[in-house]
Structure prediction request, 118 residues.
Amino acid sequence: MWIPLLVLSALLSGALGAWAAVRAARDQPVIWRQLKAGAVVEGVLVLEAAVAVVMALGTSRPHDAPTFWGYLVTTLLILPVAAAWSFAERTRWSSVVLLVAALTVAFLQLRLWQVWQA
Prediction:
């Protein structure tokens, strides 16, 4: 895996989670700008997936391929599902959903690196 891209996606996801935590603490729902920020994070995750595929087709491969690809696909699905849920749920809980999703994505970045390096 390309470490700078993993770190960037983890930091962006963490920042999105912090923003969602502030809004949840203030009893406010997710706003449109947060969903746009989530789309930016998702774009970085798609780029990360493309880099992982290219690297896996080359000489570098993850040590536990099924786990790695499962984490990668899960990472790509979490934010869109959370965004849809947040858009439908117009209460403070939409911010909590986005917070949990963003933190999960950040954690999965660590797991992706660990599985690749194992």
The chain has one domain: 3-117.
